[in-house]
C-alpha cells in the first residue's frame, strides 16, 4: 500500500478496535507504534521484549537525532563544536550530502533548549538552512533488541507494559525470562548494524566487495557470454518445468500415431466382393409370413411345408396367415409391433392361392419382400424357388444358391474413387499431425509470455543483453527442444512402415518439412506472443491460431479442389495466399502432397502407365487428361502439385521474414513509428507545456524549488548539465491516449546522490521508471545518464544501469544463485570472478540458506533481496530501485539500507521509489513528491519537513505520586494549551498523552524549554518531541492525487491496430 492507503487502513482499525481485541503482525514499525497498545518483538520462536511503545523506546532508545540541512558555506567542525558545547555527549552520526545528523542522549534534554535556540540564532553564520529533531523510532528498538548482548538485561523488563509505565524502575525480579536463549539474535548479521537513523557508510567495507576490481568482457566475448547465459536460462527452465516438457513430447506423438492408425484402417480402392443372396446378413430369429390360400391344394401345402422347413433350419419363426387377406395381415402386423421392429424382423414373405387364367383354375405363388433392406427382392425369390424345388423333387437336400458378382468398376469409376480416397487419406494424416504440432509450437509461447509479463525479459534487457543474443539463444534451445518430439514422430512413421512416407527416402522429406516448420513457426510465435498478457490465454490462443491457420485453410483448399465444384482456380489462388502467410498450412500441405503424390503414382502404375498414354492420352494419368486427373511428380520436391518443394521454399522465407519483423520490433523501429503516428493523430490542439509560474497540479501551485529546477534545466546547455549532474531529466512526458501519466517533469541528480521519487499509486512513478529504463518510449522530452540520452542511446544506458523493478522479475524455476550467475554473465563479469561475486552478494543479502532453492519458493522479502542483488551485480553506475524493501522485516531492511548507502558512497547514483517514508528519510539525499504526473516539491528530507511540515508531535508519560497513584494529565494539557494555542490532544489514557502542536513557526528550542519546566511542575516522567514526519508532508500533498480510470490509461491500446507494438 502507498502511505495514503495505509493511513486510511489505520484509521479504520483505530475506529473499530474499541471493545475488541486486535492482534497485529507487521513489518512496519510505525504501524505497530500507532496501532499497538502493547508491542512484542519475537525472534527464533521466543519473545525478546514486550511493552508499550513508550516503554520500549525508553528502554532501548539511543536518544534524539538532530538533523541539519547545510548550505555550501557550512563547516561541519564548527557545527559539531557548537553542539558539543551544550551537549557534551553528543555524537556526529553521519554527514551525507547536504545533511548532518547528531545523536543527542535523552538524559541531557535539559540542555536542548539553549542548543536549539543558539542554532536558530546563528543558523546563517553556521551555514544551516534548516534543522529538526526526531526521537527514537520503533524500528531502532527492533534493531537494538536484535543485538546479542541485550537478552540478560532485557529479561528483567521484557514483559512490562501491561499497565504500569514505571515497572522497569520498581521491579527487581532477576530471574531471566529467556533462560537458555541469552545469545539469541533476530537474524544473522543484524547485530552489526547501526542503530540510528543514519546509515553506516564506512564500517564493514566488505559490503561492497562484490563490486571491487571487477573485470568485464567486451565485444565478441561479451556477446558469447550473454548468449551462453540466456541459453542456460532456457535449459534450466525446460528441465525443471516437467509438465510442459512432458506435454511437448507426448501430444505430437499421440496425434501422429492416431493419424497413421487411421491411414491403416481406411479401406483401399477395390472391386466389390461377391454377395450370396440369403438371409444370413440379417441374423437369426426373423419372422416370415406366408399363406396357402382359402382352399389349400396339395401343391400349396407341399410348397408351404418345404418353405417352413427351410426357414426353421435357420431358427427363424415362420408365421402362417389363415384369416384375413395376406396383404391386410401384413399391414396389421406392422401396426401391431411398430414399423421399426417390423423392418428389422420381417424381410420376406410368401402368398399362395387359387386363381384363374384363360378360364382355367391355376395355382398362384407370390414372393413378398420388405423394401427397406438391400437385395430383399432377390432373396425372397430365392427362398420361394428353393421351396418349389424341394417340393417338386421331394428332396430337402437339393437347393439353389444365388450369388451376385458385381461388375468390375470402369476405369472412370476406379479413377474417381482412387482420386478421392487418396486425397481424403492424405488430408486426414495431415489434419492429425497439424493438430499435435499446433500444441507443440504454442507451448513455446508460455515461457516468453510469462517472462515478459513478469518483467523478467525487460530486466534482462536492462542488464545489457542484446537483441541477437536474447532471441538466437531462445531459438537455438527451442529448436533443440522442438527436434526431440520431431525425431520421435519420425520414429513413429518408420515403425508404422507406411509406404507413402517410408520408401525412397521420403522420411528425409518429412524430416525436412518438420525442420523448416520449426524454422518458420518459432519466430512467428515469438511475434504473436506479444499480444498476450497471461501464459494460459496465450497457449490457448496460439494453439487455436495454429489450428485455424493450418486445418481450416487446408480444409478450405481441399474442398475447393473437388472437380465437381469447378473451383480449382480458387483453390490454387488460396493455396498461394496461405502458403505465403502460414507455416502450419505449408507443413500440412507438404505432408498431404507427399501422400497424394505416392497414391497417384501407385494408382497410375496399376492402370498400365505410361504405356496406356500411347493408346489413350486422355487417360487420368496422361497429359491430355481434362477431368479427374492423376497429376504426380517423380521428384517429390517439385514445385508443381503434388510436389512439396513450394512449401519448403515458403517456410524458409517465412522464418527469415518473421525474424526481420521480430528484430524491427525489438530494436524499437516499429514502436517509434507507431508512437509517431499516435502523436500526429492525438496531439492536435492538446495542452503542450507548462504555463509559466502559475501552473497548478491538482490544485497545488508549482513550488518555487520545482520551478527553479525546471528553469535551471531549461536555460542551461545540456553539455553543461551532464558535465555536473549524473542524471538529467528534461521535460519528460508520457501520454496514454487521453491520459497524461507524466507531464513534462524536469529534475537533475548529482553524482553520488540518492534520489527519491515519491508518490501515491497512479502518480506517474512507474511510468517514469519505464521511460528511464527503456520499457516504454517517451511521448516527448528526454533524459541523459552520464551524457547518454535515452531516446537514441538506450543500449549504452543499459550497460550502466542496474534495475530492481516494483514486481519481482524473477524466473521461478531458477535458484537464487543461478539467477545471480545469469545476470553476472549478462553484465559481462569474467567467468573466473562470477562465483566469488555471487557468493559475496548472497551473504550480504542474507540469502545463504535459500541460495540453492528455486526462487519461486521464496517469501516476498527474500524475492526483494534477490531483486536488489540483481540490480547491484556487475557494478552499474546507476541503480534504479522500485520499492526494494517491500515485505522485508526491519532488520533485513536496515541491512539493505546500509548496503545501498555504501554503494552510493562508493560513487554510484541511486534512484529510489518507496512507500516507506522512513526508508526515503534514511537513504535519499534529494527527493521529489509526484502528484498527477508532476513534481510538487523538491529537496532533501529535512528541507521538506522544515518547509512543509505541520508543527510537532509531543508524547508524554506521567509519573506516579508518593501514594503510588498516577498523576493526572489534565494540568499538563491545560498548560500546553495556554502556552501553545495550536495544541491538540490526539490521545490520552493511563498516563500516556499524545499531543499535536500544529504551529510550524514555533521555535523548537522554546518547546523543549517549556517541556523541561512542565516535567518538574507536573511530574512528567519523560517526554519525546518529534518534528513533523516526511509521511505527514507526503500525505498533505498526495491527497490531491486523482485516480485515472483504467480505460483512460489504456484507451490507445484499444484504438490502434498496432497496439501491441506500442503498449506491450
From TrEMBL:
Signal peptide positions on this chain: none
Molecular-function annotations in GO: ABC-type transporter activity; ATP binding; ATP hydrolysis activity; lipid transporter activity
SMART domains for the chain: AAA
Primary location class: membrane
UniProt keyword list: ATP-binding, Membrane, Nucleotide-binding, Transmembrane, Transmembrane helix
Every ABC transporter domain range: 727-957
Entry protein name: ATP-binding cassette, subfamily A (ABC1), member 3
Organism in which the protein naturally occurs: Mytilus galloprovincialis
Amino acid at each position: 500500500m502507498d502511505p495514503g492507503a495505509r493511513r486510511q487502513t489505520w484509521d479504520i482499525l483505530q475506529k473499530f478496535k474499541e471493545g475488541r481485541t486486535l492482534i497485529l503482525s507487521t513489518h512496519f514499525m510505525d504501524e505497530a507504534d500507532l496501532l499497538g497498545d502493547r508491542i512484542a518483538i519475537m525472534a527464533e520462536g521466543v519473545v525478546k521484549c514486550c511493552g508499550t511503545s513508550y516503554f520500549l523506546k525508553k528502554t532501548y532508545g539511543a536518544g534524539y537525532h538532530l538533523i541539519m540541512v547545510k548550505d555550501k558555506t557550512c563547516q561541519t567542525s564548527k557545527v559539531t563544536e557548537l553542539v558539543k558545547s551544550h551537549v557534551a555527549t553528543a555524537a556526529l552520526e553521519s554527514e551525507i550530502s547536504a545533511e548532518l545528523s547528531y545523536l543527542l542522549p535523552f538524559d541531557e534534554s535539559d540542555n536542548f533548549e539553549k542548543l536549539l535556540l543558539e542554532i536558530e540564532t546563528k543558523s546563517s553564520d553556521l551555514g544551516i538552512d534548516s534543522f529538526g529533531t526526531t526521537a527514537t523510532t520503533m524500528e531502532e528498538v527492533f534493531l537494538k533488541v536484535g543485538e546479542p548482548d541485550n537478552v540478560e538485561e532485557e529479561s528483567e523488563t521484557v514483559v512490562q507494559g501491561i499497565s504500569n509505565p514505571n515497572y522497569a524502575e520498581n521491579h527487581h525480579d532477576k530471574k531471566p525470562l529467556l533462560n537458555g536463549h541469552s545469545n539469541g539474535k533476530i537474524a544473522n548479521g543484524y547485530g552489526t548494524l547501526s542503530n540510528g537513523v543514519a546509515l553506516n557508510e564506512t564500517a564493514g567495507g566488505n559490503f561492497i566487495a562484490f563490486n571491487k576490481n571487477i573485470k568485464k568482457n567486451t565485444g565478441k566475448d561479451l556477446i558469447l557470454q550473454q548468449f551462453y547465459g540466456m541459453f542456460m536460462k532456457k535449459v534450466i527452465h525446460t528441465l525443471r518445468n516437467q509438465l510442459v516438457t512432458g506435454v511437448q513430447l507426448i501430444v505430437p506423438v499421440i496425434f501422429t500415431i492416431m493419424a497413421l492408425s487411421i491411414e491403416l484402417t481406411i479401406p483401399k480402392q477395390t472391386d466389390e466382393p461377391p454377395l450370396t443372396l440369403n438371409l444370413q446378413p440379417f441374423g437369426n430369429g426373423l419372422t416370415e409370413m406366408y399363406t396357402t390360400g382359402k382352399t389349400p391344394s396339395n401343391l400349396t401345402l407341399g410348397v408351404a411345408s418345404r418353405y417352413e422347413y427351410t426357414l426353421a433350419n435357420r431358427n427363424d419363426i415362420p408365421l402362417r396367415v389363415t384369416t384375413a387377406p395376406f396383404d391386410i395381415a401384413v399391414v396389421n402386423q406392422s401396426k401391431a409391433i411398430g414399423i421399426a421392429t417390423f423392418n428389422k424382423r420381417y424381410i420376406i414373405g410368401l402368398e399362395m392361392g387359387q386363381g384363374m387364367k384363360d378360364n382355367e383354375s391355376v395355382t398362384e405363388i407370390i414372393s413378398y419382400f420388405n423394401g427397406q433392406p438391400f437385395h430383399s427382392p432377390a432373396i425372397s425369390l430365392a427362398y420361394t424357388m428353393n421351396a418349389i424345388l424341394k417340393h417338386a423333387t421331394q428332396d430337402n437336400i437339393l437347393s439353389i444358391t444365388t450369388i451376385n458378382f458385381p461388375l468390375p468398376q470402369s476405369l472412370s469409376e476406379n479413377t474417381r474413387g482412387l482420386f478421392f480416397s487418396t486425397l481424403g487419406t492424405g488430408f486426414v494424416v495431415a489434419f492429425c499431425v497439424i493438430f499435435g504440432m499446433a500444441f507443440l509450437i504454442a507451448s513455446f509461447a508460455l515461457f516468453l509470455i510469462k517472462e515478459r509479463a513478469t518483467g523478467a525479459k525487460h530486466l534482462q534487457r536492462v542488464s545489457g543483453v542484446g537483441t541477437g543474443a536474447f532471441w538466437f539463444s531462445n531459438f537455438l534451445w527451442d529448436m533443440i527442444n522442438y527436434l526431440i518430439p520431431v525425431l520421435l514422430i519420425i520414429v513413429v512413421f518408420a515403425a508404422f512402415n507406411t509406404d507413402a512416407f517410408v520408401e525412397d527416402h521420403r522420411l528425409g522429406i518429412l524430416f525436412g518439412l518438420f525442420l523448416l516448420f520449426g524454422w518458420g513457426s518459432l519466430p512467428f510465435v515469438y511475434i504473436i506472443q506479444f499480444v498476450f498478457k497471461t501464459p494460459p490465454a496465450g497457449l490457448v490462443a496460439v494453439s487455436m491460431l495454429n489450428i485455424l491457420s493450418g486445418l481450416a485453410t487446408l480444409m478450405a483448399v481441399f474442398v475447393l479442389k473437388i472437380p465437381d465444384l469447378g473451383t480449382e482456380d480458387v483453390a490454387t489462388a488460396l493455396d498461394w495466399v496461405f502458403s505465403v502467410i502460414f507455416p502450419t498450412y505449408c507443413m500440412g500441405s507438404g505432408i498431404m502432397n507427399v501422400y497424394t503424390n505416392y497414391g497417384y503414382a501407385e494408382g497410375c502404375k496399376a492402370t498400365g502407365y505410361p504405356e496406356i498414354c500411347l493408346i489413350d492420352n486422355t487417360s487420368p494419368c496422361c497429359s491430355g487428361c481434362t477431368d479427374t486427373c492423376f497429376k504426380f511428380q517423380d521428384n517429390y520436391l517439385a514445385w508443381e502439385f503434388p510436389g512439396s518443394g513450394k512449401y519448403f521454399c515458403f517456410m524458409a522465407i517465412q522464418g527469415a521474414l518473421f525474424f526481420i519483423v521480430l528484430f524491427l520490433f525489438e530494436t524499437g523501429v516499429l514502436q517509434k513509428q507507431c508512437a509517431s503516428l499516435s502523436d500526429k493523430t492525438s496531439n492536435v490542439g492538446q495542452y503542450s507545456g507548462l504555463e509559466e509560474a502559475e501552473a497548478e497540479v491538482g490544485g497545488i501551485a508549482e513550488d518555487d524549488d520545482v520551478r527553479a529546477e525546471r528553469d535551471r534545466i531549461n536555460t542551461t546547455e545540456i553539455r553543461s548539465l551532464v558535465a555536473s549532474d549524473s542524471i538529467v531529466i528534461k521535460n519528460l512526458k508520457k501520454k496514454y491516449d487521453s491520459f497524461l501519466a507524466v507531464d513534462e517533469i524536469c529534475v537533475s541528480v548529482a553524482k553520488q546522490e540518492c534520489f527519491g521519487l515519491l508518490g501515491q499509486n497512479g502518480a506517474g512513478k512507474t511510468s517514469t521508471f519505464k521511460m528511464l529504463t527503456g520499457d516504454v518510449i517517451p511521448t516527448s522530452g528526454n533524459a541523459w545518464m552520464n551524457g547518454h540520452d535515452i531516446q537514441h542511446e538506450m543500449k549504452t544506458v543499459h550497460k550502466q544501469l542496474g534495475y530492481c523493478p516494483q514486481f519481482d522479475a524473477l524466473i521461478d524455476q531458477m535458484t537464487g544463485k543461478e539467477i545471480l550467475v545469469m545476470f553476472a554473465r549478462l553484465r559481462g563479469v569474467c567467468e573466473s570472478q562470477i562465483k566469488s561475486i555471487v557468493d559475496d552478494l548472497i551473504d550480504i543479502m542474507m540469502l545463504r540458506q535459500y541460495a540453492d532453492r528455486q526462487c519461486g519458493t521464496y517469501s516476498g522479502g527474500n524475492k526483494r533481496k534477490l531483486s536488489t542483488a540483481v540490480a547491484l551485480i556487475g557494478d552499474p553506475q546507476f541503480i534504479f530501485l522500485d520499492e526494494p524493501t517491500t515485505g522485508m522485516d526491519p532488520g533485513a531492511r536496515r541491512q539493505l539500507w546500509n548496503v545501498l548507502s555504501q554503494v552510493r558512497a562508493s560513487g554510484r547514483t541511486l534512484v529510489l521509489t518507496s512507500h516507506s517514508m522512513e526508508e526515503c528519510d534514511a537513504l535519499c539525499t534529494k527527493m521529489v513528491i509526484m502528484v498527477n504526473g508532476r513534481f510538487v516539491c523538491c529537496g532533501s528530507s529535512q528541507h521538506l519537513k522544515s518547509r512543509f511540515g505541520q508543527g510537532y508531535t509531543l508524547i508524554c508519560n506521567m509519573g506516579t505520586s508518593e501514594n503510588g497513584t498516577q498523576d493526572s494529565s489534565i494540568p499538563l494539557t491545560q498548560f500546553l494549551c495556554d502556552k501553545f494555542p495550536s495544541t491538540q490532544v490526539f490521545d490520552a489514557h493511563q498516563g500516556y498523552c499524545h499531543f499535536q502542536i500544529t504551529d510550524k513557526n514555533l521555535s523548537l528550542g522554546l518547546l523543549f524549554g517549556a517541556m523541561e519546566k512542565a516535567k518538574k511542575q507536573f511530574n512528567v516522567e519523560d517526554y519525546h518531541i518529534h518534528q513533523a514526519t516526511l509521511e505527514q508532508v507526503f500525505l498533505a500533498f498526495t491527497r490531491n492525487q486523482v485516480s485515472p480510470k483504467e480505460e483512460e490509461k489504456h484507451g490507445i491500446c484499444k484504438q490502434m491496430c498496432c497496439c501491441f507494438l506500442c503498449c506491450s
